[in-house]
Protein backbone atom coordinates (compact mmCIF):
# COMPACT_ATOMS: atom_id res chain seq x y z
CA UNK A 1 0.00 0.00 0.00
CA UNK A 2 1.29 3.45 -0.87
CA UNK A 3 0.09 6.77 0.53
CA UNK A 4 -2.32 7.26 -2.36
CA UNK A 5 -4.22 4.17 -1.25
CA UNK A 6 -4.93 5.86 2.10
CA UNK A 7 -6.75 8.73 0.44
CA UNK A 8 -10.21 7.17 -0.22
CA UNK A 9 -10.78 5.92 3.36
CA UNK A 10 -9.38 9.13 4.79
CA UNK A 11 -11.72 11.20 2.60
CA UNK A 12 -14.62 9.13 3.81
CA UNK A 13 -13.60 9.95 7.37
CA UNK A 14 -13.09 13.60 6.47
CA UNK A 15 -16.68 13.79 5.23
CA UNK A 16 -17.91 12.57 8.62
CA UNK A 17 -15.70 15.20 10.28
CA UNK A 18 -17.18 17.91 8.04
CA UNK A 19 -20.72 16.87 8.92
CA UNK A 20 -19.96 16.72 12.64
CA UNK A 21 -18.35 20.15 12.49
CA UNK A 22 -21.24 21.66 10.57
CA UNK A 23 -24.04 20.27 12.74
CA UNK A 24 -22.33 20.91 16.05
CA UNK A 25 -21.29 24.44 15.07
CA UNK A 26 -24.86 25.29 14.07
CA UNK A 27 -26.17 23.77 17.31
CA UNK A 28 -23.47 25.63 19.23
CA UNK A 29 -24.39 28.94 17.59
CA UNK A 30 -28.06 28.53 18.51
CA UNK A 31 -27.16 27.63 22.11
CA UNK A 32 -24.70 30.53 22.25
CA UNK A 33 -27.43 33.03 21.35
CA UNK A 34 -30.07 31.52 23.63
CA UNK A 35 -27.86 31.35 26.72
CA UNK A 36 -25.75 34.42 25.95
CA UNK A 37 -28.97 36.47 25.83
CA UNK A 38 -30.23 34.49 28.83
CA UNK A 39 -27.26 35.48 30.94
CA UNK A 40 -28.24 39.16 30.44
CA UNK A 41 -31.96 38.51 30.93
CA UNK A 42 -33.86 40.32 33.69
CA UNK A 43 -35.78 37.04 34.19
CA UNK A 44 -33.86 35.37 37.04
CA UNK A 45 -34.87 31.80 36.13
CA UNK A 46 -33.66 32.17 32.54
CA UNK A 47 -30.52 33.83 33.81
CA UNK A 48 -29.85 31.08 36.37
CA UNK A 49 -30.28 28.32 33.79
CA UNK A 50 -27.96 30.18 31.41
CA UNK A 51 -25.24 30.69 34.00
CA UNK A 52 -25.50 27.05 35.11
CA UNK A 53 -25.23 25.79 31.53
CA UNK A 54 -22.26 28.01 30.67
CA UNK A 55 -20.31 27.16 33.83
CA UNK A 56 -21.07 23.45 33.67
CA UNK A 57 -19.92 22.97 30.10
CA UNK A 58 -16.93 25.30 30.32
CA UNK A 59 -15.87 23.76 33.61
CA UNK A 60 -15.75 20.13 32.53
CA UNK A 61 -13.72 18.34 29.89
CA UNK A 62 -15.22 17.77 26.46
CA UNK A 63 -13.98 14.18 26.49
CA UNK A 64 -15.75 13.49 29.78
CA UNK A 65 -18.94 15.14 28.46
CA UNK A 66 -18.76 12.94 25.40
CA UNK A 67 -18.22 9.74 27.42
CA UNK A 68 -20.96 10.76 29.81
CA UNK A 69 -23.51 11.22 27.01
CA UNK A 70 -22.47 8.06 25.22
CA UNK A 71 -21.71 5.64 28.06
CA UNK A 72 -23.14 7.01 31.31
CA UNK A 73 -26.46 8.41 30.12
CA UNK A 74 -27.76 5.04 28.79
CA UNK A 75 -26.85 3.43 32.13
CA UNK A 76 -28.64 6.15 34.05
CA UNK A 77 -31.57 5.72 31.69
CA UNK A 78 -31.59 1.98 32.22
CA UNK A 79 -31.75 2.48 35.99
CA UNK A 80 -34.82 4.67 35.45
CA UNK A 81 -36.31 2.33 32.87
CA UNK A 82 -35.92 4.75 29.93
CA UNK A 83 -33.97 4.06 26.78
CA UNK A 84 -31.44 6.87 26.59
CA UNK A 85 -28.99 5.20 24.23
CA UNK A 86 -27.76 7.74 21.72
CA UNK A 87 -26.38 6.89 18.29
CA UNK A 88 -22.68 7.88 18.18
CA UNK A 89 -23.31 10.72 15.70
CA UNK A 90 -25.96 12.27 17.92
CA UNK A 91 -23.82 11.89 21.05
CA UNK A 92 -20.91 13.49 19.19
CA UNK A 93 -22.91 16.42 17.80
CA UNK A 94 -24.56 17.02 21.18
CA UNK A 95 -21.33 16.96 23.17
CA UNK A 96 -19.49 19.20 20.69
CA UNK A 97 -22.42 21.58 20.25
CA UNK A 98 -23.11 21.90 23.98
CA UNK A 99 -19.45 22.53 24.65
CA UNK A 100 -18.85 25.11 21.93
CA UNK A 101 -22.24 26.73 22.73
CA UNK A 102 -21.10 27.42 26.29
CA UNK A 103 -18.00 29.25 25.08
CA UNK A 104 -20.02 30.98 22.36
CA UNK A 105 -22.58 32.17 24.93
CA UNK A 106 -19.86 34.14 26.69
CA UNK A 107 -18.90 35.71 23.36
CA UNK A 108 -22.53 36.65 22.63
CA UNK A 109 -22.99 38.05 26.13
CA UNK A 110 -19.83 40.13 25.89
CA UNK A 111 -20.66 41.53 22.45
CA UNK A 112 -24.21 42.46 23.45
CA UNK A 113 -23.01 44.12 26.66
CA UNK A 114 -20.45 46.10 24.64
CA UNK A 115 -23.08 47.89 22.54
CA UNK A 116 -23.00 51.49 23.73
CA UNK A 117 -25.56 52.75 26.23
CA UNK A 118 -26.36 55.60 23.80
CA UNK A 119 -27.96 53.09 21.47
CA UNK A 120 -30.24 51.81 24.23
CA UNK A 121 -31.23 55.38 25.06
CA UNK A 122 -32.01 56.22 21.44
CA UNK A 123 -34.13 53.07 21.20
CA UNK A 124 -35.97 53.98 24.38
CA UNK A 125 -36.59 57.53 23.19
CA UNK A 126 -38.16 56.10 20.02
CA UNK A 127 -40.31 53.84 22.19
CA UNK A 128 -38.98 50.49 20.98
CA UNK A 129 -39.89 47.65 23.36
CA UNK A 130 -37.00 45.87 25.11
CA UNK A 131 -37.40 42.92 22.75
CA UNK A 132 -37.40 45.12 19.63
CA UNK A 133 -34.37 46.96 20.98
CA UNK A 134 -32.51 43.69 21.44
CA UNK A 135 -33.28 42.23 18.03
CA UNK A 136 -33.32 45.27 15.75
CA UNK A 137 -30.85 47.62 17.41
CA UNK A 138 -28.47 45.74 19.69
CA UNK A 139 -27.86 42.31 18.16
CA UNK A 140 -27.20 43.52 14.59
CA UNK A 141 -24.49 45.77 16.02
CA UNK A 142 -23.11 43.05 18.29
CA UNK A 143 -22.76 40.36 15.62
CA UNK A 144 -19.73 41.87 13.87
CA UNK A 145 -18.03 41.98 17.29
CA UNK A 146 -18.76 38.29 17.82
CA UNK A 147 -17.51 37.07 14.47
CA UNK A 148 -13.73 36.91 15.07
CA UNK A 149 -14.29 34.89 18.26
CA UNK A 150 -16.88 32.71 16.53
CA UNK A 151 -14.28 32.02 13.82
CA UNK A 152 -11.82 30.81 16.45
CA UNK A 153 -14.47 28.66 18.10
CA UNK A 154 -15.48 27.06 14.79
CA UNK A 155 -11.87 26.07 14.06
CA UNK A 156 -11.53 24.84 17.64
CA UNK A 157 -14.68 22.80 17.14
CA UNK A 158 -13.36 21.24 13.94
CA UNK A 159 -10.24 20.09 15.76
CA UNK A 160 -12.25 18.84 18.74
CA UNK A 161 -14.22 16.49 16.50
CA UNK A 162 -11.16 14.21 16.58
CA UNK A 163 -12.29 13.15 20.06
CA UNK A 164 -15.40 11.43 18.70
CA UNK A 165 -13.16 8.70 17.25
CA UNK A 166 -13.04 7.50 20.86
CA UNK A 167 -16.71 6.54 20.74
CA UNK A 168 -16.04 4.59 17.54
CA UNK A 169 -17.44 7.21 15.17
CA UNK A 170 -15.78 6.84 11.78
CA UNK A 171 -14.36 10.35 11.46
CA UNK A 172 -11.03 11.35 9.95
CA UNK A 173 -8.98 10.46 13.05
CA UNK A 174 -10.78 7.12 13.45
CA UNK A 175 -10.02 6.15 9.86
CA UNK A 176 -6.42 7.17 10.23
CA UNK A 177 -6.10 5.01 13.33
CA UNK A 178 -7.58 2.06 11.49
CA UNK A 179 -5.12 2.36 8.62
CA UNK A 180 -2.23 2.83 11.00
CA UNK A 181 -3.14 -0.30 12.96
CA UNK A 182 -3.16 -2.19 9.72
CA UNK A 183 -0.03 -0.77 8.05
CA UNK A 184 2.06 0.57 10.96
CA UNK A 185 2.91 3.48 8.61
CA UNK A 186 2.59 6.10 11.34
CA UNK A 187 4.70 8.88 9.80
CA UNK A 188 2.85 9.00 6.51
CA UNK A 189 -0.61 8.68 8.02
CA UNK A 190 -0.18 11.24 10.76
CA UNK A 191 1.41 13.65 8.29
CA UNK A 192 -1.57 13.26 5.96
CA UNK A 193 -3.87 13.73 8.94
CA UNK A 194 -2.17 17.01 9.87
CA UNK A 195 -2.44 18.31 6.32
CA UNK A 196 -6.10 17.36 6.01
CA UNK A 197 -7.12 18.99 9.31
CA UNK A 198 -5.13 22.06 8.36
CA UNK A 199 -6.84 22.26 4.96
CA UNK A 200 -10.28 21.94 6.55
CA UNK A 201 -9.40 24.58 9.17
CA UNK A 202 -8.42 26.94 6.36
CA UNK A 203 -11.78 26.41 4.67
CA UNK A 204 -13.60 27.09 7.96
CA UNK A 205 -11.55 30.26 8.46
CA UNK A 206 -12.37 31.49 4.96
CA UNK A 207 -16.09 30.79 5.45
CA UNK A 208 -16.12 32.59 8.79
CA UNK A 209 -14.28 35.58 7.30
CA UNK A 210 -16.93 35.75 4.59
CA UNK A 211 -19.71 35.68 7.19
CA UNK A 212 -17.91 38.36 9.17
CA UNK A 213 -17.70 40.62 6.13
CA UNK A 214 -21.36 40.02 5.39
CA UNK A 215 -22.45 40.81 8.96
CA UNK A 216 -20.42 44.01 9.07
CA UNK A 217 -21.01 45.28 5.54
CA UNK A 218 -22.65 48.44 6.92
CA UNK A 219 -19.37 49.37 8.55
CA UNK A 220 -17.43 49.34 5.33
CA UNK A 221 -19.99 50.99 3.03
CA UNK A 222 -18.37 53.61 0.81
CA UNK A 223 -20.02 56.60 -0.71
CA UNK B 1 -55.01 75.47 26.59
CA UNK B 2 -53.57 77.46 29.46
CA UNK B 3 -52.61 74.28 31.31
CA UNK B 4 -48.90 73.65 31.05
CA UNK B 5 -47.91 70.72 28.81
CA UNK B 6 -44.90 70.07 31.04
CA UNK B 7 -44.86 70.60 34.77
CA UNK B 8 -42.14 69.81 37.31
CA UNK B 9 -43.42 70.05 40.88
CA UNK B 10 -40.69 69.99 43.55
CA UNK B 11 -38.75 67.37 41.61
CA UNK B 12 -35.71 65.90 43.31
CA UNK B 13 -33.09 63.92 41.40
CA UNK B 14 -30.00 62.54 43.09
CA UNK B 15 -27.08 60.52 41.81
CA UNK B 16 -25.72 58.99 45.01
CA UNK B 17 -24.84 61.89 47.30
CA UNK B 18 -25.03 64.42 44.52
CA UNK B 19 -28.29 66.33 44.26
CA UNK B 20 -28.78 67.21 40.60
CA UNK B 21 -32.28 68.64 40.82
CA UNK B 22 -33.19 70.25 44.10
CA UNK B 23 -36.98 70.56 44.42
CA UNK B 24 -37.24 71.94 40.92
CA UNK B 25 -40.40 73.75 39.86
CA UNK B 26 -40.66 74.28 36.14
CA UNK B 27 -43.48 74.72 33.65
CA UNK B 28 -43.72 74.84 29.90
CA UNK B 29 -46.81 75.92 27.96
CA UNK B 30 -48.05 74.10 24.91
CA UNK B 31 -46.21 75.29 21.82
CA UNK B 32 -43.68 77.24 23.87
CA UNK B 33 -40.00 77.24 22.86
CA UNK B 34 -37.84 77.21 25.96
CA UNK B 35 -34.06 77.30 26.10
CA UNK B 36 -32.22 76.03 29.13
CA UNK B 37 -28.78 77.45 29.77
CA UNK B 38 -26.38 77.14 32.65
CA UNK B 39 -23.02 75.77 33.75
CA UNK B 40 -22.28 72.08 33.27
CA UNK B 41 -23.53 69.97 36.13
CA UNK B 42 -26.38 72.36 36.80
CA UNK B 43 -28.96 69.67 35.98
CA UNK B 44 -30.14 71.05 32.65
CA UNK B 45 -29.67 67.85 30.64
CA UNK B 46 -31.19 65.88 33.50
CA UNK B 47 -34.48 67.74 33.00
CA UNK B 48 -34.64 66.43 29.43
CA UNK B 49 -33.53 62.92 30.40
CA UNK B 50 -36.25 62.72 33.06
CA UNK B 51 -38.86 63.81 30.51
CA UNK B 52 -37.63 61.23 27.99
CA UNK B 53 -37.88 58.61 30.80
CA UNK B 54 -34.16 57.87 30.60
CA UNK B 55 -33.75 58.83 34.28
CA UNK B 56 -36.17 58.36 37.16
CA UNK B 57 -36.85 60.84 39.94
CA UNK B 58 -36.55 60.49 43.71
CA UNK B 59 -39.23 62.89 44.82
CA UNK B 60 -41.84 65.31 43.52
CA UNK B 61 -44.01 64.98 40.47
CA UNK B 62 -43.58 65.44 36.73
CA UNK B 63 -46.71 65.85 34.62
CA UNK B 64 -46.90 65.80 30.85
CA UNK B 65 -50.12 66.93 29.23
CA UNK B 66 -51.88 66.78 32.60
CA UNK B 67 -50.87 63.18 33.30
CA UNK B 68 -48.21 62.12 35.80
CA UNK B 69 -45.13 60.84 33.95
CA UNK B 70 -43.32 58.83 36.59
CA UNK B 71 -46.49 57.86 38.49
CA UNK B 72 -49.79 56.27 37.65
CA UNK B 73 -53.14 56.00 39.34
CA UNK B 74 -53.26 52.80 41.40
CA UNK B 75 -55.80 51.35 43.81
CA UNK B 76 -54.29 53.30 46.73
CA UNK B 77 -53.54 56.57 44.99
CA UNK B 78 -50.43 57.27 42.96
CA UNK B 79 -47.94 54.46 42.37
CA UNK B 80 -44.61 54.41 40.56
CA UNK B 81 -45.20 54.18 36.81
CA UNK B 82 -45.18 50.78 35.14
CA UNK B 83 -43.28 50.17 31.92
CA UNK B 84 -46.62 50.18 30.06
CA UNK B 85 -47.46 53.62 31.43
CA UNK B 86 -44.02 54.97 30.55
CA UNK B 87 -44.38 53.56 27.07
CA UNK B 88 -47.69 55.33 26.57
CA UNK B 89 -46.32 58.64 27.87
CA UNK B 90 -43.09 58.40 25.90
CA UNK B 91 -45.02 58.54 22.65
CA UNK B 92 -45.64 62.25 23.20
CA UNK B 93 -41.97 63.13 23.40
CA UNK B 94 -39.01 62.98 21.06
CA UNK B 95 -35.35 63.61 21.71
CA UNK B 96 -32.34 64.81 19.75
CA UNK B 97 -29.07 63.73 21.35
CA UNK B 98 -25.75 65.48 21.71
CA UNK B 99 -23.93 62.53 20.09
CA UNK B 100 -26.73 62.00 17.52
CA UNK B 101 -27.10 58.31 18.59
CA UNK B 102 -28.10 57.20 15.10
CA UNK B 103 -28.25 53.46 14.51
CA UNK B 104 -24.97 52.80 12.68
CA UNK B 105 -26.11 49.57 11.04
CA UNK B 106 -29.12 51.14 9.34
CA UNK B 107 -29.26 53.44 6.35
CA UNK B 108 -30.43 57.00 6.88
CA UNK B 109 -33.86 56.05 5.54
CA UNK B 110 -34.21 53.06 7.84
CA UNK B 111 -33.04 55.09 10.82
CA UNK B 112 -36.13 57.22 10.24
CA UNK B 113 -38.66 54.55 9.21
CA UNK B 114 -37.80 51.80 11.70
CA UNK B 115 -39.62 53.20 14.73
CA UNK B 116 -42.76 54.37 12.88
CA UNK B 117 -43.07 50.90 11.35
CA UNK B 118 -42.19 48.81 14.41
CA UNK B 119 -43.57 51.01 17.17
CA UNK B 120 -46.48 52.88 15.57
CA UNK B 121 -47.40 50.09 13.18
CA UNK B 122 -47.23 52.37 10.14
CA UNK B 123 -46.99 50.65 6.75
CA UNK B 124 -43.52 50.56 5.22
CA UNK B 125 -44.72 52.59 2.28
CA UNK B 126 -46.27 55.36 4.39
CA UNK B 127 -43.22 55.46 6.64
CA UNK B 128 -41.00 55.81 3.61
CA UNK B 129 -43.04 58.64 2.13
CA UNK B 130 -42.99 60.43 5.49
CA UNK B 131 -39.23 59.86 5.88
CA UNK B 132 -38.57 61.29 2.43
CA UNK B 133 -40.61 64.37 3.29
CA UNK B 134 -38.64 64.82 6.49
CA UNK B 135 -35.30 64.34 4.74
CA UNK B 136 -36.37 66.97 2.23
CA UNK B 137 -37.15 69.28 5.08
CA UNK B 138 -33.76 68.87 6.74
CA UNK B 139 -32.03 69.17 3.37
CA UNK B 140 -30.83 65.57 3.04
CA UNK B 141 -33.13 64.15 0.39
CA UNK B 142 -30.18 62.75 -1.56
CA UNK B 143 -28.59 60.94 1.40
CA UNK B 144 -31.35 58.41 2.16
CA UNK B 145 -29.39 55.30 1.20
CA UNK B 146 -26.18 56.20 3.03
CA UNK B 147 -25.04 54.88 6.37
CA UNK B 148 -24.50 57.34 9.25
CA UNK B 149 -20.70 57.01 9.17
CA UNK B 150 -20.72 58.28 5.60
CA UNK B 151 -22.22 61.60 6.70
CA UNK B 152 -20.71 64.63 8.42
CA UNK B 153 -21.66 65.36 12.02
CA UNK B 154 -24.02 68.12 10.95
CA UNK B 155 -25.77 65.83 8.49
CA UNK B 156 -26.01 63.10 11.13
CA UNK B 157 -27.63 65.47 13.57
CA UNK B 158 -30.14 66.56 10.93
CA UNK B 159 -31.01 62.88 10.43
CA UNK B 160 -31.39 62.68 14.23
CA UNK B 161 -33.92 65.50 14.08
CA UNK B 162 -35.81 63.87 11.20
CA UNK B 163 -35.84 60.57 13.10
CA UNK B 164 -37.37 62.20 16.18
CA UNK B 165 -39.96 64.08 14.07
CA UNK B 166 -41.02 60.87 12.32
CA UNK B 167 -42.70 59.77 15.55
CA UNK B 168 -44.82 62.95 15.53
CA UNK B 169 -44.06 64.05 19.09
CA UNK B 170 -45.89 66.93 20.75
CA UNK B 171 -42.72 67.84 22.62
CA UNK B 172 -39.25 67.80 21.14
CA UNK B 173 -36.23 67.78 23.45
CA UNK B 174 -32.82 68.94 22.21
CA UNK B 175 -29.90 67.92 24.42
CA UNK B 176 -27.00 70.14 23.40
CA UNK B 177 -27.60 69.31 19.74
CA UNK B 178 -24.57 71.20 18.41
CA UNK B 179 -22.01 70.59 21.17
CA UNK B 180 -20.39 67.62 19.43
CA UNK B 181 -20.08 69.40 16.08
CA UNK B 182 -17.16 71.12 14.42
CA UNK B 183 -17.81 74.88 14.45
CA UNK B 184 -18.41 75.10 10.70
CA UNK B 185 -21.21 72.51 10.92
CA UNK B 186 -23.17 74.15 13.73
CA UNK B 187 -25.00 76.57 11.44
CA UNK B 188 -26.75 73.97 9.29
CA UNK B 189 -28.19 72.25 12.36
CA UNK B 190 -29.30 75.51 13.96
CA UNK B 191 -31.03 76.49 10.71
CA UNK B 192 -33.12 73.33 10.85
CA UNK B 193 -33.97 73.80 14.53
CA UNK B 194 -34.82 77.45 13.82
CA UNK B 195 -37.29 76.39 11.14
CA UNK B 196 -38.93 73.95 13.56
CA UNK B 197 -39.27 76.73 16.12
CA UNK B 198 -41.66 78.46 13.76
CA UNK B 199 -44.13 75.59 14.03
CA UNK B 200 -46.92 76.75 16.24
CA UNK B 201 -47.94 73.40 17.77
CA UNK B 202 -44.58 71.92 18.59
CA UNK B 203 -43.31 72.41 22.14
CA UNK B 204 -39.54 72.66 22.21
CA UNK B 205 -37.07 72.36 25.05
CA UNK B 206 -33.53 73.18 24.08
CA UNK B 207 -30.47 72.71 26.27
CA UNK B 208 -27.73 74.68 24.58
CA UNK B 209 -24.54 76.68 24.84
CA UNK B 210 -25.39 78.67 21.70
CA UNK B 211 -26.49 81.84 23.45
CA UNK B 212 -27.15 83.87 20.35
CA UNK B 213 -29.31 81.12 18.92
CA UNK B 214 -31.21 80.66 22.19
CA UNK B 215 -31.93 84.35 22.09
CA UNK B 216 -33.25 84.21 18.54
CA UNK B 217 -35.54 81.19 18.73
CA UNK B 218 -36.87 80.95 22.27
CA UNK B 219 -39.92 82.45 23.88
CA UNK B 220 -38.28 82.04 27.25
CA UNK B 221 -34.80 81.32 28.56
CA UNK B 222 -34.16 79.56 31.86
CA UNK B 223 -30.85 79.86 33.65
CA UNK B 224 -30.14 76.72 35.66
CA UNK B 225 -27.74 76.68 38.54
CA UNK B 226 -27.23 74.02 41.19
CA UNK B 227 -30.33 72.05 40.34
CA UNK B 228 -32.74 74.95 40.29
CA UNK B 229 -33.85 77.70 37.98
CA UNK B 230 -31.93 80.69 39.19
CA UNK B 231 -33.50 83.13 36.76
CA UNK B 232 -35.83 83.00 33.79
CA UNK B 233 -37.54 85.34 31.42
CA UNK B 234 -37.91 86.55 27.87
CA UNK B 235 -34.57 86.30 26.05
CA UNK B 236 -34.14 90.02 25.57
CA UNK B 237 -34.57 90.60 29.31
CA UNK B 238 -32.42 87.73 30.51
CA UNK B 239 -29.57 88.38 28.12
CA UNK B 240 -29.52 92.17 28.35
CA UNK B 241 -30.60 92.83 31.91
CA UNK B 242 -30.13 89.78 34.13
CA UNK B 243 -31.12 90.52 37.72
CA UNK B 244 -29.10 87.81 39.46
CA UNK B 245 -25.39 88.14 40.05
CA UNK B 246 -24.88 84.43 39.20
CA UNK B 247 -26.58 84.87 35.81
CA UNK B 248 -24.41 87.89 35.03
CA UNK B 249 -21.24 85.95 35.86
CA UNK B 250 -22.30 83.03 33.69
CA UNK B 251 -23.26 85.15 30.72
CA UNK B 252 -20.09 87.16 30.98
CA UNK B 253 -18.05 83.94 30.97
CA UNK B 254 -19.78 82.34 27.99
CA UNK B 255 -20.24 85.42 25.85
CA UNK B 256 -16.55 86.31 25.91
Explain the layout of strands and helices.
The complex is a heterodimer of chains A (223) and B (256).
Chain A: H1 3-39, H2 44-58, H3 62-80, H4 88-113, H5 117-125, H6 130-160, H7 172-183, H8 186-215
Helix pairs in contact in A: 1-2, 1-4, 1-6, 1-7, 1-8, 2-4, 3-4, 4-6, 5-6, 6-8, 7-8
Chain B: E1 4-15, E2 18-29, E3 33-37, H1 44-51, E4 59-64, E5 67-68, E6 71-74, E7 77-80, H2 83-90, E8 93-96, H3 108-118, H4 124-137, H5 153-165, E9 171-175, H6 183-197, E10 203-207, H7 211-217, E11 220-225, E12 228-233, H8 235-240, H9 245-255
Parallel strand pairs in B: 3-10, 3-11, 8-9, 9-10
Antiparallel strand pairs in B: 1-2, 1-4, 4-5, 6-7, 11-12
Helix pairs in contact in B: 3-4, 3-5, 4-5, 5-6
Structure summarized in a few sentences:
Chain A is an all-alpha fold.
Q: What does this protein look like?
A:
- The complex is a heterodimer of chains A (223) and B (256).
- Chain A is mainly alpha-helical.
- Chain A has a single domain, classed as MetI-like (MetI-like fold, Orthogonal Bundle).
- Chain A has 8 helices and no strands.
- In chain A, α7 packs antiparallel against α8.
- The model of chain A has no long low-confidence stretch (mean pLDDT 94).
- Helices cover 36% and strands 28% of the residues of chain B.
- The relative contact order of chain B is 0.17.
- The model of chain B has no long low-confidence stretch (mean pLDDT 93).
- Chains A and B meet through α5 and α6 of A and β8 and α3 of B.
